[in-house]
Design goal:
Length: 690
Amino acid sequence: MLTSADLPFHHPYRHGFARLAVAVPRNRVADPVFNAAETIRLYGEAAAQGAAVVAFPELGLSAYTCEDLFHQAALLDACETALQQVVEASRHIAAVAIVGLPLRVEHRLFNCAAVVQGGRLLGVLPKTYLPNYGEFYEGRQFNGADTALATEIELCGATVPFGSDLLFQARNLPLLKIHVEICEDVWVPIPPSSYAALAGATVLVNLSASNITIGKSAYRHQLVSLQSARCQAAYLYSSAGIGESTTDLAWDGQALIYEAGELLAESERFSNRSHMILADADLERLSRERMRQNSFGTSVQKHRQQLAGWRTVVFDLALPESVPGGLLRKVERFPYVPSDAASRDERCHETFNIQVQSLVQRLEASKIDKVVIGVSGGLDSTHTLLVLAQAMDRLGLPRRNILGFTMPGFATSKRTLMQAHELMTSVGCTVREIDIRPSCTQMLADLGHPFHNGEPVYDITFENVQAGERTSHLFRLANFHGAIVAGTGDLSELALGWCTYGVGDHMSHYNVNASVPKTLIKHLVRWVADTGMLGERGSQTLRDILATEISPELVPTDPNAVGSQPGQKTEDTIGPYELQDFHLYYTVRYGFRPSKVAYLAYVAWHDRDQGSWPQDLPDERHQYSLAEIRKHLRTFVWRFFQTSQFKRSCVPNAPKIGSGGSLSPRGDWRAPSDGESAVWLADLERIPEA
């Protein structure tokens, strides 16, 4: 029997995914022969598409709208025969099918879900909550699950488990653990699936009929989204479609698949034919979220008495050797930046205001009304200066209380120096320029550095002397003017250790950018430019800064070439920020191993013509091969886990911005400064070269 580890690298199941399906067959009222045939057809189609689980509507083998026909023996006999046909079909279909039908147990009738796989009926779950209000009269025909005495029943030639406390787990895909509830069960204050999730279920299935009324579709979305989010689970929801009786009701056949509050797939509504949706749920993500969110574990402990009697049925699942279409899931290239324009604007607005409000609080609490900032003409200090300007406006203080200093060194280009001056002028802050070359020259002389003797030695000491001198000036300027130093370094730089430790750009009194990644800062600056906050000239300066190569400007090139790009390029050393931010997000937010991160990166980045892009990046649409991803991920793993934690262990105060996390030891990330990267590098070797 194949396990996920036996599958090739590009197979979604290898990386903790499972393909799930919800099918809505066209049915006929009280015609189990027809309904079984259509169910089996869709069941086979879903399995052929690589699905591991296929869910069907409530009472789908009989139809939901049979009313008092449910008490007719001929219909009930035919439903059991139809179930037997589905069981027989499952011998040749490599997936779990979950079908609805009425069943007689203990001289009573139950609205049931039957779980079928591998030629076996694995178990039967009765509906717990029977609606008997409005248009619903289920209490007239059925009994609720809690009234049943039996825990096993004889059906389809076998003795099978019976009850709402059943879980179904794939032996060779252990993260796939299924629970089934039926329609009204999820509409109550505490659905059975809540306990099922605490008992270990990762895939929650709802066989529903659910007639359609105005506004009900949106409410289903809310209901399923919130239940999947609270339970940290995948949730499959079906509803009856064409073929149900329209004597008094209407049906839209809506099918939904959610994962932890996120919509993965939704069906067409009001279709007059059978239809189906598929999506790949990330079961590993769900497991890790439960592990990370310790309140989930606390809930398990709190309800352990209710969970003690739950039963698990284990089965062997024939994993598909290949799946059509690759990963059926949207993987954003920029996990910190929505590709949708409206969502991106909202993200920028919220991020900017979190930063501004946090700085306002810090200034008010410290009784300080001035801020010192080093302005390089590059991306990070530009955004910090924009935040400072809004903070001063919000406090009712003049922008001249922002003391802006540009400090050219041995490698500062005319382009960035000009941009720094133009930006500060547009903002309206106090503008100063301090040439740090004399003080750096003195320090290099004190060190006995070869550069002092005219040798072109541009080593790490040469670079850090400049970075340290700038920060030293800023702190002493803050002392002198009664101000605080605003940090400019971002989340991406902290992750990669791309900052000079201590008296360098690593340090400040307060850093508004510390949990904002480079990719988001780029969009924030463009967002401010588009709002016209600094006027037409200021917006043009911001766009010029966006078009400037990211560089520390610490190694000399030709400083007299106006308009030329800086010669030293950060991304030549640490890799492209857009890719490293992707690696950062999935490493820190979900704790995925490098091989899975690389798989997701390949899905997102291997073809620039696939998927969606932020519309404000028309000329920056790159793609990366698996070999390139592997190379840059190795850089990330080495720098993040092996060489950079000591810098993150003592970072200045800074607000957490997004769910992607911060790297503050007082917040999201606590790690040893002397940890090893060996296990991550070893897993990296599982990524093929091509």
